[in-house]
Amino acid sequence: MGLTYNFFEYFVFFYASSMFLVYLTLGILSFVNITRYRTYNSRLDDQFLIDSPLTPGISVVAPAYNEEKTIIVNVKSLLTLNYPLYEVIIVNDGSKDRTLELLVGEFDLVETPYAYVERIKTKPFKRIFKSTNPKYAKLTVVDKMNGGTKADASNAGINAAQYDYFLCTDVDCILERNTMLRMIKPILNSKEKVIAVGATLRMSNSCDISDGVIERVKPPQRLIPRFQELEYLRAYLFGKMGWSLLNCVPNVSGGLGLFNKEVAVNAGGYDGASHAEDMDIMVKMAAYMINNHQKYRIEYIPVSCCWTEGPPNVKILGRQRVRWATGLAQIFFVHRKILLNPRYKRLGMITFPFQMIYEFLAPIIEATGIVYFIYLVLKNDVNWPMAGYIFLYSYSLAIMFGTLVILLDNFVKRQYKTGRETFKLWLMVFLEPFLYHPLLIYFSLKGYFNFYTSRQMEWGTMTRQGYENTATPKIKTEDSANE
Question: What is the per-residue pLDDT across 269-284, written as a single tens digit (0 to 9) for each?
Fold first, then answer.
């Protein structure tokens, strides 16, 4: 028993230490990348992009499933984005509520013939709607049979897209007005082909929203969304910005991502059977470029461009995270040939091993450690000094990284107006290891179990609270769009 216990002690210690070194390195790389972004972001002026006839067109694709509470205000928000050439494609994925009915009534939609080419196979689409009102000329609504996942709905939107780039978002998200101007810049600035661009997401819970725009960013009042705010900032600013510098970004969030349409289509689009469609499509697009001997980049920008309504309670959070964990297990099974395969270069030798060791295996290792520790307590065989040291070591690292993330966020842009609001978020750094992280471990294990027992999952029902303080956005006409 003593030998086994000592081995486990040192294994946990070295695992935590290696994780510390990896994330410290990512943090340094993130800081370098953010500093570089702040320096070179002004290379292309926004007004120049707006005025230029060469600015690439973008198709905004937003799947919708049972979104009646927020659908109108969010579609109007998408129609007011500041970009010279774009369209908005809403995909009604067989909603069972009044989502389609509200869209038809509010935007004067009528069924219309449309050149819908199914380059990516999806569940059958029923009809396509366009507006009779010139004010909504940018809007297209695709009505299709429910495909069971967001991936199938996204593919239908890509099939309907007319431009070379598509921006995939969730219909409940609120985008910063200059989102597309900011996200197209890495594509235009790069010497290599940029196949995808991501940006930072935040929680819209408790923010002041008017005219479909975030007027003031506030930390969520409820604990669960506030924990998610901290988690998202850590993932984007401390993780993906670092990976972006190495060109090893594992995924671009499904909440906001700009993609090269031709590469996405040639790679097969989103996997309609996947529950981690955002990571799956990035793996397929990167593998497609590698297999065709083409250089590519996946970029991230540190700016907060998207606000999404996070799960407000443990029950809804659980549904979301179980699906994500199921999807992660699915990724490693479907794309298992990539792991540690030198043919896939950074993807196979850096990105996949990191995801396997520090994302997929972490909940299993942590849960095993907890169970083993309880066993030792019951056997009265705990090395309390060593156990205390490991706990303080891990807890200190969590506090340090959480604090650095908040400082990095303020370095990019101070979103909260008062120190009190920043303190509310910083407080989560101390509580997260006890109140939030154990939930994520449980949901991850449940997701793995669902995958390996072949349990079927579909779109989760995300209960929307809506935006009570939201006024109706003013929609710009074609003549006034560039004023």
Answer: 999 888 899 999 999 9
